[in-house]
Design a protein that fits this description.
Strand content: under 5%
Number of domains: 4
Number of strands: 0
Order of helices and strands: HHHHHHHHHHHHHHHHHHHHHHHHHHH
Radius of gyration: 23 Å
């Protein structure tokens, strides 16, 4: 049984249809998270959505295709966090890469290579530059495999959001090009659906306008006709560019996108809302091998701790949902910071402190998400006001916030980090009690989290997809980034045996990449140790 259909308690969407969360609300929040994760201005994806909808109208697309345009524009990069670690290893701060490369014709080495060289020299100055250049050249061929993984993960996440195979195909086709020089390759021309052609051009227009004026953007679109962009979409745009561009000239981009949501987009039922929030959790946790499964684990522990503390069921539900989305803002901090093995610099810490602020901003609207985001973004607050990002004192932290903070701290301590191995539950409990003595964590919340962790460790684990116990061990190590040799050494088996286990896992899970296998493990709660 999937963890996506096993909520920890009675969790309900808002009963009032006027304020209940809809699919569009969740997808818009994911679009904002994608903006943060790509290092582009907030609401960039929403502007692209408005341009896409106006272009679809100009092209006379039927209603069903216009609906696909809406959701594709918002979800086109939903698999982007899968590539964060690889991009950081190659280019340093991956959040600087996307804004620089996105407006370029990446199939043209005259555009790509100079930009790549400049960024490498900035990120790896002096003697660090030659090894960085060699790394990029050696791993160039692996970029296509990264695109395969990104598309596979995006398809899985879209499926879990409830979208059908047609929308999933649109999303996985988006990185392709009209001339066939896109990624992962294999599609071109008429293989690309009208919604894909529309959103590809709309994104290109938005990116070109961000780095230049309207005249230069129109010239670049004209030059890329039949290469990056579909001729039919380009021709319609160039006939009436002012009309299309005016779509994003609105007072509130967020309001305009919500108003443009498909008419059949009604309130989410409880199971689909919970599944959507888990998509947000997994989207964030795919940012780094050290984070996989963290948000789900914190959500479950926080809910169990809240129940252990005797909190009302409504508060248990609120804590659980806040736990799922508490780390959405992590995507706005470079993976090079999350993966740093040595001490963090002052600049690193300032970036880290921003992640709870990003969570708050991503979930700032509508009111139902705002309430969730306000609680979620308190997970690093401390009773002595030494926490972040608001530095709230004890009298401004409700019991739910105190429980979430204790659960997050405990769960993080029992996970491996680049600078330390995972602590045992006993070690984590001692650390947390030290924080209580120092006046930073609430005593009751901490004891509830510790007690809940012990109870959870005695629960029966679910059997998923016919995986054996050894295959689960292999999957857990693979999801944490271990190589075949490291898996073999840890489990005292031959590398060939470890690889065979991994291939069996792929077959049973119905995936073809390690990133997708990792997402499968997260979805089915297979990443936590079997006992506490």
């Amino acid at each position: 049984m999937s963890a996506d259909v096993r909520p920890p308690g009675r969790i309900r969407n808002d009963p009032d249809p006027a304020t209940a969360l809809r699919l569009a609300d969740v997808v818009v929040a994911l679009s904002l998270a994608t903006d943060v994760g790509l290092g582009v201005p907030l609401e960039s994806g929403l502007r692209i959505c408005l341009l896409s909808m106006r272009l679809a109208e100009a092209m006379g697309l039927p209603d069903d295709q216009t609906r696909r345009v809406y959701y594709l524009a918002l979800l086109r990069h939903i698999g982007c966090t899968v590539r964060s670690e690889d991009m950081a290893n190659l280019l340093g701060d991956e959040l600087m890469a996307s804004p620089r490369f996105a407006p370029l014709d990446m199939a043209d080495p005259r555009q790509f290579l100079p930009a790549a060289m400049r960024m490498l020299r900035e990120q790896f100055p002096g003697a660090r530059f030659p090894p960085a250049l060699v790394r990029m050249m050696v791993n160039a061929r692996a970029m296509n495999q990264g695109a395969v993984a990104m598309c596979e993960v995006a398809q899985m996440l879209a499926d879990r959001l409830g979208f059908d195979g047609v929308v999933q195909l649109d999303i996985t086709s988006f990185p392709e090009r009209w001339d066939g020089k896109g990624m992962p390759g294999g599609k071109k021309g008429e293989d690309l659906s009208p919604p894909v052609r529309v959103v590809q051009l709309a994104e290109g227009i938005a990116l070109l306008l961000h780095v230049g004026d309207e005249a230069s953007a129109l010239a670049a679109v004209r030059a890329r006709r039949g290469r990056m962009y579909a001729p039919d979409a380009v021709d319609v745009f160039l006939c009436r560019p002012g009309d299309v561009l005016s779509a994003a000239e609105v007072g509130s981009v967020w309001d305009a996108v919500i108003e443009a949501a498909p008419a059949d987009d009604g309130p989410l039922d409880d199971l689909r809302l919970d599944a959507s929030l888990r998509v947000m959790a997994d989207f964030a946790d795919l940012k780094s091998r050290y984070l996989v499964g963290h948000s789900r684990g914190v959500a479950r522990l926080a809910a169990d701790a809240a129940r252990e503390a005797g909190m009302p069921e409504a508060d248990v539900a609120a804590v659980h949902r806040a736990g799922l989305v508490h780390d959405l803002g992590r995507v706005g901090v470079s993976t090079s910071v999350w993966a740093k093995r040595g001490p963090l610099s002052l600049d690193d810490w300032e970036k880290v402190r921003m992640h709870s602020y990003y969570t708050d901003r991503i979930l700032s609207r509508p009111e139902a998400l705002h309430r969730m985001g306000t609680l979620a973004s308190t997970h690093h607050e401390r009773l002595d006001a030494s926490g972040y990002f608001r530095s709230l004192p004890a009298n401004q932290q409700p019991p739910a916030a105190r429980v979430l903070a204790a659960a997050d701290a405990f769960h993080a301590m029992t996970e491996p980090r680049p600078h330390r191995p995972a602590m045992t539950p006993g070690e984590a409990a001692r650390e947390l009690r030290g924080e209580v003595e120092a006046g930073r964590l609430d005593a009751d919340a901490t004891e509830a989290a510790v007690a809940a962790a012990g109870e959870r460790g005695r629960r029966r684990r679910w059997q998923v997809a016919g995986l054996t116990a050894r295959e689960v061990e292999v999957l857990r190590l693979a999801a944490r980034g271990a190589s075949i040799r490291e898996i073999a050494r840890t489990l005292v088996i031959a590398p060939k045996t470890a690889d065979a286990h991994l291939q069996h896992i792929y077959t049973k899970a119905g995936v073809s990449t390690r990133a997708a296998a990792t997402l499968f493990a997260m979805q089915h709660d297979l990443l936590e140790p079997p006992s506490v």
